[in-house]
Design brief:
Elements: H1 4-20, E1 27-33, H2 37-49, E2 54-60, H3 62-71, H4 74-77, H5 82-93, E3 97-102, H6 114-127, H7 129-136, E4 142-146, H8 150-156, H9 162-176, H10 184-205, E5 209-214, E6 217-223, E7 230-231, E8 234-235, E9 241-242, E10 245-246, E11 251-253, E12 255-265, E13 270-272, E14 275-277, E15 281-285, E16 288-293, H11 298-305, E17 314-319, H12 325-328, H13 336-339, E18 345-349, H14 364-370, E19 378-382, E20 389-393, E21 399-404, E22 407-408
Parallel strand pairs: 1-2, 1-3, 3-4, 4-10
Antiparallel strand pairs: 5-6, 5-20, 6-12, 7-11, 8-9, 11-17, 12-15, 13-14, 15-16, 17-18, 18-19, 20-21, 21-22
Length: 409
């Protein structure tokens, strides 16, 4: 048994070496909450040990964020710090890697007007578009990892004393990232190679569409022609191999923006924009969400899909088995980084460039014509469970079983 401090150090090493894939003489932009400082210091030390030329920590504070929404004027809600965001985009264009530490309170903005949240999200999304395109286009090596915070732990483990809840959440983070293994890096590499074999298999099958069936769900998702499945580690356009998400259990592909039809129901709550949405139901016709509802967070969901035209369409479909390590943890994390890796899911909004062969050589018009989706949002929500089956469909509609009761056939 290792101590918490030993596990945290190993987690930092895994994050920098296998997550970010940081290279000697590379710069790193690190985004984290001030409460994550002990973990961030370990990350910074590990980065410099690997030869980073600079690690720039971009601190945030959830209470400062909350103050903007509670006390800020309409001008404050509608303001985006372009001077800072332009600088971040420039750093990435010049080769800086990116690491984000996720630890936010899932319900931070639960008492805030959805209109104010939607306005701020739309303005920020537009201002961050250059950054989003660099990240989604895999121009740089990047990674997102989790860190336990008291507010997040209290949501996951309500009723437990704060210290115990944080300890249990850290334990779940270590479990799902394979830090509990005798050699975490070797275990992560072996897991990633397994995902890569699954990707190779799916790319060889060349399905025309996927068909999801389960309680409240009968959904056909057409895939773009010349699609590419991805998952696990990937090679960024700068040549660096990295793991964008720790943990990760998914293999994912690009839906055709005009070929999604049917009804689908969420199987887990969704934490988005500081609020928690539950009981999501959406009907698609010709790729567009024509009817949406949520048992909790209806207005937030509606404003989300009203962000722009692309927000009404899908940019990603991902398959995750129930036997995945995150699902085995038996925890509802209220954090998409984790919950999306416990169940198959879809994403409203922007597509990922890596899922379409030849994407970079296409014009924006050609990408749309091929079925790629463009939006300033990308929001994953979970639709898989032990009651959901998935078939791959050939061009003539003939099915091949892929998942039964949430497991690979």
């Amino acid at each position: 048994m290792r101590s918490f401090e030993q596990n945290l150090a190993l987690y930092a090493e895994l994050t920098i070496r296998e997550g970010v894939g940081l290279q000697p003489s590379q710069e790193l932009l690190l985004f984290a909450e001030i409460g994550d400082a002990p973990f961030v210091r370990l990350l910074v030390s590990e980065a410099y040990r690997l030869g980073a030329k600079n690690v720039e920590v971009m601190w945030s504070d959830s209470q400062v964020t909350l103050a903007r929404f509670q006390e800020g004027s309409d001008e404050a809600i509608s303001y985006a710090q372009a001077w800072l965001l332009d600088g971040v985009a420039r750093a990435h264009r010049e080769g800086a890697a990116r690491l984000a530490v996720a630890s936010a309170d899932p319900g931070l903005l639960s008492g805030i007007s959805p209109e104010r949240i939607a306005t701020h999200g739309r303005i920020q999304g537009a201002a961050r578009k250059a950054i989003s395109e660099l990240v989604a286009g895999f121009a740089i090596n990047w990674c997102v990892v989790g860190a336990a915070s008291p507010a997040w732990a209290a949501k996951v483990f309500p009723g437990l004393p704060a210290e115990e809840a944080v300890a249990k959440l850290w334990d779940a983070i270590f479990l799902t990232s394979r830090v509990h293994e005798s050699n975490p890096i070797a275990a992560w590499v072996a897991h990633s190679e397994g995902l890569e074999r699954r990707v190779e298999q799916l790319n060889g099958l060349r399905f025309d569409a996927l068909h999801f069936r389960g309680p409240g769900t009968d959904l056909r998702i057409g895939l773009v022609e010349n699609h590419l499945w991805a998952g696990g580690r990937g090679r960024a356009k700068n040549g660096v191999i990295c793991s964008p998400n720790i943990p990760t259990e998914e293999v994912f592909c690009m839906p055709h923006r005009l070929r999604v039809d049917g009804k689908v129901s969420s199987t887990k709550p969704l934490s988005v924009r500081g609020q928690v949405l539950e009981g999501i139901e959406v009907e698609f016709k010709g790729g567009e969400a024509v009817r949406v509802s949520a048992r909790q967070g209806q207005e937030t969901l509606q404003r989300l899909i009203d962000t722009d035209d692309g927000a009404k369409r899908l940019g990603e479909v991902a398959l995750v088995p129930n036997s995945a390590k995150v699902a085995q943890a038996g925890i509802l994390f209220y954090n998409t980084l984790y919950d999306e890796n416990a169940a198959s899911h879809i994403a409203l909004g922007a597509s990922y460039a890596e899922n379409l062969d030849g994407y970079d050589s296409m014009s924006e018009e050609e990408r749309l014509a091929h079925g790629a989706n463009d939006s300033i949002i990308h929001v994953d929500w979970m639709i898989g469970s032990a009651q959901v089956d998935v078939d791959g469909l050939a061009a003539d509609g003939s099915p091949t079983p892929l998942m039964r009761a949430g497991e690979w056939v």
